[in-house]
Amino acid sequence: MPANSFLPRMVITLFTFIFFLYFCYSLHRTDENLNLLEMKNKLEKYFGRHAQIVLHISLVIFCIGMIIYFMPREKYTSYSFEEGTPWNHEQIIADFDFVIKKSAKTIAEEKDSIRNNFRPYFTYNSALNAAEFRKEFPAREMQEYANCLDALYKDGIVSDEDATIIRSRNNDEINFTYKGNTITKDAGRFVSISEAYETLMNADTILTGEMFAAIEAERFITPNYVCDTLLTEKELSKQLKKVDARIGTVVKGQRIINKGDIIDRNTYRTLETYFNILNEIEAAKSTNSKLNIFFGQVLFIIICMLVLVAYIYIYRPDIATSNKKFIFTTLCATVFPTIVGIVVTHGDISVFILPFAMVPMLLCLFIDHSTALITHCITILMCSIMLGSPYEFTMLQTVAGISAILSLKELSSRSQMFRCVFITLVVYAVTYMCYELIIESDFSKMKYNMYIYFTISALLMLFVYPMMFIVEKVFGFVSNVTFIELSNLNSKLLQRMSQEAPGTFQHSMQVGNLAAEAARALGANSLEVRTGALYHDIGKLNNPIYFTENQSGGINPHNALSPEESASIIIKHVTDGLSIAEHEHLPKKIKEFITTHHGNSKAGYFYITYKNAHPDEEIDESLFTYPGTRPTTQEQAILMLADCVEAASHSIKEYTDANIEELVDKIVAAKLQEGELSLAPLTFKDIDTIKSIFKKRLKAIYHTRVSYPKEKKA
Asked: May I ask the CATH architecture of the domain 480-701?
């Protein structure tokens, strides 16, 4: 890949990634503002009936193209070596004569050294002195100035610009030409025009400052040494051309290095030159060489990406049906192969510095652990074919990635992130030590600079924490860290609820405790359902007094309203909750808890009241039906049941075990009969577990207490 194509490729990549991020963000915002049916219709309008398949195929083709675009086209040597380390391979004997060339960096450093130490050339004008000054000011008291000016001309006066040139160079002398001869002069004796004027002004004479300014002495200060730019550039160019780009020569049959020898700077350059020439010779053997390499790369990358897609469609259909999750997973598998291709082709850094474990960590946090493992393994395989030592790289990165996955079960505090990074670093170091002992069986021959690379890689892994915020904003995901922040009872919205609707606040916390315990029993996200419980009734903040838990003193405003009006106020807390959630920028998952915690059920009390009052009238059930949707996840279904059970538990007249069990069974059976749980991924065993948890928890809350006996008076 030509070096001058690097910048255009990077620009193309940057704009492409920005486009995809914007697309994902737009998709996320669209999901918030449109219901699923509208979203489906919008996609079908543009892509047809198979919109999702078209999107997935296009994305996979893009990812494959991105990786292949940056992969090195040349056939690289299989040797891996670094300066200052022992040569771990067999003896190398030169197969041909070749010249060892200095690196571009070394040549640049030598030329910079010449420039810094080069003496600039000046022309000397001997005709300049203080004669004109003496002629204009013949007075005796002015001779001190004339003598001072003669001394300055003798030392040398230069312009302020030339003075800067002299002092910016690392030499003590300059060259100047006089009558065809080149003479050196001490650079420290020169003064600039400004300095010469200041010297004259400070001379020990009888004139005051105003009198000195009046004579306009600067008229008589003219540079007598002037930089000869043309001559300076000419001589400098001659010096730069003398820089030899060669270190030496190697003849055919000459030994370059033995196994176990330490690679010094010259040997490193010799090996680098030798293998570069080998690669050029190999590439020139056949015009089909690059085409064959390209075909192999394309085929291997296609196989790897198809394996990932097959895993998603077969084992994780929830990712396949979610465009955001599918895009996020495939982009995660694309990022590091693209970066490795750039580093291998253009970079001077080791690939072991790159934090490959970031991909499985992010996937663990936002998708799941099995997908993280599969994606990480496929990513490492795609990266390995670009490197000289694929076995060492694959072994280290695979083990390190697995350790990161195992040590990051969930992220609810910063300490867990540091622990994960520390464990991954230790696994890196121990695995590499084992590998080196197997290969070398000698501690003295280990490449200790690798441990520096591992440390840098581990530190870069800490950027997962700020990356979480970006991923959440772009893809609309919600991490456990965000749930913890939202569940802080000191947050502005929850504090407002505790003050304006204290009954609802207490109800929400009790629902959260019930739901979280049931979620833990099922293996669902207890932190998510607890946070959703805290916010599911925030719509009641608009009319808190109309809800029983917030009423006190026997005052019930519903007594003055018709059942239809009361039902309208009650069911409106769902839409009010969504409005508040939108205003407070709550995540989409929290909004889903608000819309699903009543599903499509009815405001039962007012519906039955109206029905009893109008037995022969056809009822418009929409007036009493909550404007929500049915739960589609375990967490949403658990919250719905916990909300109903907790609210109904306050209506029990006598808290006995039998009454509590009957209440729970009755409510869950009613929800099943109404079909409110028809879309939730719950089994009958899950429902039995939920009921058991609710019963146990309610019995603990409403257990009978021992009455203390009254003390008898003597």
From this structure: Orthogonal Bundle (1.10)
